[in-house]
Every structure is written in structure tokens, then in C-alpha cells.
Amino acid sequence: MIRARGLARTFTARGRSVEAVKGVDIEVTEGELVGFLGPNGAGKTTTLRMLTTLLRPTAGEAQVAGRDLLADPVGVRRQIGYVAQGGGVTPEMRVIEEIELQGRLYGMSKADARRRGQELVEQLDLVNLDQRLTKTLSGGQRRRMDIALSLVHDPKLIFFDEPTTGLDPQSRANLWDHIRRLRAERGVTLFLTTHYLDEADSLCDRVLVIDNGEIVAEGTPDSLKARVSGDGVTIGVAPEFVGAAAELAGHLEGAHEVTLGDDVVRFRVPRGDTALPELLRHLDSQGIPMTSMQVHRPTLDDVFLTLTGRSLRDAEQPRTHEEAAHVA
Ligand SMILES: Nc1ncnc2c1ncn2[C@@H]1O[C@H](COP(=O)(O)OP(=O)(O)OP(=O)(O)O)[C@@H](O)[C@H]1O
Fold it and tell me: Domains of the chain (ranges plus CATH)?
């Protein structure tokens, strides 16, 4: 569905060059739900805008939905849907009118646009909202309408730019359900950007991690997490036993990163669930009581930390609006 090679974009802002995307390769197969994860300013939106023909790459090439991005941008546009961040709608228009208008813009007859509008309001749970003015919709309802708009021409590939940014947890969960259903019921391929770790983890089949314009990792959320060297284990022991307990922990197979606290020992092992009983036996045999234990499975944040030395949360940088305003 998507095959990009060496896709790059450099911006020139006030004589300064910003390499927003530094030659990325992207492969997405039909029916996949792929997440593009990275901190603010990593290059996600720029990549998405290139793949959706809104921005011309400085270098590279891509096939998107079977069309050549550079040679046939109009063909690409016909095949894809794009749900932008806060896409523009007419505030004084009713939801159904907005969707029907979109159908008309795609060349549908009035009757076809009406039929399609009905289908989509049903599909996206907008039936009771279809006569509302678009400006009165809540954030989550608005996102559902944006999705309906992007689906009017029945695209097989849909791009979402940060679909749930700014939504409360309940609306986010609701939107995830809609996104999952889109894939299950319509078999569409989905490519979304996000800086939410939980979104990438629970929604996406596969995740591409981008940092500073480069893809630093890719794989299923589980395989990425498996690359982090093991589970994090924290055990509690009385302060006088910390040294001895750390020594025992350090001898477990594959144990590393052993650190000592006042009354805790932390370490990593390939499998926390099998290492803990073994450690418990060793502690018992030395008469050391364990007061607490915790196994922390690696998260995508641990993946990012391992790859870049920074936490994804710490890596969040405020966007340089000033730069964006001065594109040469
Ligand atoms: N029009 C522009 N002119 C100059 N620099 C730009 C422009 N657009 C983006 N950039 C810069 O390119 C880099 C990547 O930006 P991009 O918007 O692609 O990041 P992002 O990962 O989508 O971030 P966010 O999560 O904030 O949307 C940033 O350093 C940004 O400041």
C-alpha cells in the first residue's frame, strides 16, 4: 500500500536549513494498521504531508496506494483519505451537509452524495448529530465527522494525523473503536501518527519510531518491547539486606543494570516471571525476607529510551512556530 524510499524534506527558514525528514524508508502492506510514533518535531506530520501529496519531498520516491507519488499525485489523492489535525470545516454548516458537500466535491451526483452521507453518519455514530452545526460538536464528535469526510470517496488507505490529540480518555477509547472497526469492516489500510505511547501500543499492528527525522526502530509493539533488554524487577528488602540481595539478583541468568536503593533492589532480567521465584528461593536460603516485589514489563517508552537515551516524554519539545512561519 505504501512503499517509500529515501523520502526526505528540508525546510529553509530564514537562511537556516532544517532537515525535518532525513530519507526514510516506509513499507506498509494492505490491511495493516501502522503507527508512526515520535516526539513533537520528530518529522511525523512532514512525512504524512509528503505521503498525502500536500508537500513535495526534497528527495526520495514513493508508491502510495498503487500510484507514483511524484508522477501521479492526483491519482494518489483519489485513492487515499486524509484526516488532518483540526482540518477545516465550515462552522455554520450542518454535519450532514458538510459530508454531502464533500461527496459532491468528489464528483458524486446529489442522490449518491445523500446516500453516501447517510451511510457514513450511521457508520460513525453521527445519526443523532447529523443536523447539528459543525461548530457545536465536541472534540470526539468532530473527529468522527472528520473521519466520515475522509471516507466519502471510499478510499482503501487512510492517513490520520494524531487522531486523538486533545481528546479526553473516554473519547479516545471511543475513537480507537471506530478506527478498529474501519479496518475490520471495510478492510482499509491505516497509517496514523501519534505521540501517545498507549495509542501506538494498543491500537497498532506495527509501529515505526521516528526521532529527529530518522526512523530509529520498527516492528510490532511486542517485538519492539522485546528488544528492550528484559523486564524491570524491583524487590523490597530491609536496608541491612540490600547489598546481599543485590548480589543474589546479579547472579540470576541474564541479570543486568542492578541498582540499589535504601530498601529496594532494581534490576533487569529477560523474564521477570521466571526470575522472581528463583530469586525468592535464594533469598530464603540466606534468611533474607522479601517485603515487596514488582515486575515491570517494558513499555514503548523504554524502547525509545534504549534507542535514543531519552524518554519519549522528556523528548517532547515545544514546536518552533517561528520557524514554520518563515519558510523560504
Ligand atoms: N514549514 C516549516 N518550516 C520550517 N520548519 C518546519 C516546517 N514544518 C516543520 N518544520 C520543522 O520540521 C521538524 C519536523 O516537524 P513535524 O511537524 O514534521 O514534526 P512532528 O513529528 O509532526 O511533530 P508534532 O508531533 O508536533 O506534530 C520540526 O523541527 C519543525 O520545526
Answer: 2-225 (3.40.50.300), 229-297 (3.30.70.980)
